[in-house]
Write a structure and sequence with these properties.
Layout (H helix, E strand, L loop, with lengths): L4 E5 L14 E3 L21 E2 L2 E2 H10 L3 E4 L23 E3 L5 E3 L5 H11 L2 E6 L6 H12 L5 H8 L10 E4 L12 H13 L6 E8 L3 H10 L7 E8 L14 H28 L6 E9 L18 H16 L4 E6 L10 E4 L2 E4 L1 H9 L6 E3 L1 E2 L4 E4 L2 E4 L1 E7 L5 E7 L6 E6 H4 L4 E6 L19 E2 L3 E4 L2 E6 L3 E7 L1
Parallel strand pairs: 1-22, 2-5, 2-13, 5-8, 8-9, 9-10, 10-11, 11-12, 12-13
Antiparallel strand pairs: 1-17, 3-4, 6-7, 14-15, 16-20, 18-19, 20-21, 21-27, 22-26, 23-24, 23-27, 25-26
Helix pairs in contact: 3-4, 5-6, 6-7, 7-8, 8-9
The structure holds alpha-L-arabinofuranose.
Amino acid sequence: QADGTVITIKSDDNAPVINKHIYGHFAEHLGRCIYDGFFVGDNSEIPNTNGVRNDIVEALKKLQIPNLRWPGGCFADTYHWKDGIGPLDQRPTIVNTWWGGVTEDNSFGTHDFLNMCELLGTEPYLSANVGSGTVQEMADWIQYTNFGGTSPMSALRVKNGRTEPWKVKYWGIGNEAWGCGGNMTAEYYANEYRKYATFLTGDIVRIASGASGDDYNWTETLMKNIPNSMLGGLALHHYSVIDWSNKGDAVDFTEDQYFGTMTEALKMEELVTKHSAIMDKYDPTKKIDLVVDEWGGWYDVEKGSNPGFLYQQNTMRDAVLAGATLNIFNNHADRVRMANLAQCVNVLQAVILTKEAKMILTPTYHVMEMYKVHQDAKLIPIKFVSPLYVYNNKSLPALNVSASKDSKGLVHVSMVNVDSKKENKIEIDLNELGVKNLTAKVLTSKTLQDHNSFENPTKIQPADYKGFEINKGKLTVTIPPFSVVVVEGK
Ligand code: AHR
């Protein structure tokens, strides 16, 4: 008789590798993400390297962030990259029409971003302007960043202080083309994509602006109308929002709102399954990546903050959301090969929040840190039937799990208990795992609303976990309510 939910786990040589790029991040010119977030300028008293905060760099390096998407988001389709290069005093300003209507001085531009990526040891993912840009502007940008030979754009780059090209691999062709990127129809955008992609060439991955949530027609139309050879990735955006007109407070929320957020978050399973199935029809050998380049929780902005800046706190609800979503991505590693949490610093489900010289790591940061062991590890497929988290005559699967084996032979199983009240137990046959020595970490807290604050920055942190036992070769792990556990086996 099993002591909990029985998980069947078996290594499979044919299983995919979990692409490290699933653990990607997103930095838009939005609110305090770039300015007064990553970038404080080199005159700041906050320790920095060429204007980029050292504490943020250190924290993100620890996370091993594989890629960083920039400059948007909606901002990307208003952005003209040539305004952000050359002498600072000659750069024109830009009004950030999508986010707060603030005027920016373009002091953080292409060099600043790409050099920052080098500092972070991460791959840049540039989102290029289709909505209000031109093909020429995009073609010039790639020549500026990637071309090592003699050309007008590489000469300009050298003049601006950078000899070697950065060789940017990931290129998004527009963002949310169905909305802020130009309100295009899927058919119209497919044609635009083909045109832009024709002039964006080299050893790069071209990523098309993808569907919002369950807009399967968007995916179908793009897959049908764009030749596979022109498409490296197809995007998908999904935010866990209960009600766009009343998103609720980020900290002061009810169980009803928690249940609503998690219902939206777990919908990701259905979304990636169905979008993947459409892609399979046109790309049966799965060459094209599904790139979930915006995901996360989105609540009302913190009281008193600029409504256009999307600043929100981050609680255990967000930790559960992140753990569950990353488990879904891992389990769909055959098609989901890149994803970007929205957003990295001070915006939406941030991993880092700053206030003047202070910086805190959110519960979501800690989940990303606990899960980094899955990056580029081989997926171990798992099977189980989850118990239910029942609330108010509605239910959700209480547990979600993913597992992988890394190149050193270490096995990691990440488990999330979504249930807000009940602990759950998971039983795994250790013989199938082929491991003996086990350690575990847990991220949990007293209440779902708990969070790290500038006054108490370490309230929520991963801790060593002893809530497991081994009996006759079976491992039983107890997962407290609304918590995330990662077991490591050698
Ligand atoms: O992440 C915030 C915004 O959400 C992005 O700018 C846009 O792409 C999406 O609608």
